Amino acid sequence: GLGIVQGRSATTFDPKAPITRAQFAAICARFDTGVSSGSRTFSDISGHWAKDYINQAANKGFVNGYEDGTFRPNQSVKRIEAVKMINNMLGWSCDRDFVDNEKHLSGFEFEDLERGSWEYYEVMEASLSHNCIHENGKEIWTKAAVAA
Q1: What is the pTM of this model?
Q2: For residues 37-74, b (16+ Cβ closer than 10 Å) or e, as one string?
Q3: Coil/strand/helix, residue 130
Q4: What are the contacts of 112-120 at 24+ separation with CB within 8 A?
């Protein structure tokens, strides 16, 4: 009803299809319709249907491209990329000092995430219930509870 998530056409949704980076960027851009002031763009989106959405989402800091200046819009979005984009869109950031120093969090591990990697912190932010305060543009955790 809000137009944030749309189908492949007016009559099909295609729920079992993988979602592309362009489609996910479009969802992120539609989530916040405010004006972006940036001019960031990528070398591989010229003429792409989602170019404006990708640029809007990138200029708002919701999505990132790759080191080579590409966005790779037709590539399927990886789970960790989706987590990062959602965290960015919601303004969430992991308090690394808290997570690294809290002993009760050590039992909450995913065997395929390297502790201390950027992916680890993104998943901790998205998956652990926590209280926080915001100071100087930084999220500071005050309490965390391991997810069930």
Answers
A1: 0.84
A2: eeebbbebbeeeebbebbbbbbbbebbebeeeeebbbe
A3: strand
A4: 119/80
